[in-house]
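**Paired protein data**
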Amino acid sequence: MAQPHLAGKRVGCPSCGSPITIPAAQRPTTPAPDILVTCRCGQRFSAKPHLAGKTVRCLKCQQPIQVPNASSASPPTQVAPLEPPKADDDLWGDLPTAPAPSAEPALASAHASLAQQHMTNARADHVEKKKDLDVWGTGKVFSGILMMVGAAVWFVVGLLGGRIFFYPPVMFVLGAIALINGIAQKLNR
């Protein structure tokens, strides 16, 4: 830690002796005050300084209001709604917004088309899932039949060779379970 009177001067490093410049002490900055905004309807609210010069909506009447610059003392002016407020503004925590009454039919139409698109996607997903389950059930039926046939062949070949194996009956039971599950899945779809 350097002495305050050395701020901005070039001195030698206490460890290695190479020349270094001591940075000037930084003063703490005070945040800019909020801007007082008054609508023509009489509603008053505070806007954050980063909103200076931007358009926001009144809390009471929802009319667009131009937030004045912090340095100007002129009253806020109402402007025609050309574009909605940007979503990246940190405004949404401070001021609620609502669509203008003239935009409600267009907004309802946009919501209806979006809902229709979601319903179409949901139907397509449902059909795709049904197809996947149908293929899965068909696979269970075929694998069950193959296991049962394989177990029967293994058992018969073992008997002809004079040996009785323990695994063919287990394999036959597992094949029967797979066959029953596959048939049940196909019937319940």
Summary: The first helix runs from residue 104 to 160. The domain at 34-82 is CATH 2.20.28 (Rubrerythrin, domain 2). Residues 12 and 89 are 48 Å apart (CA to CA). The chain is about 40% helix and 10% strand.
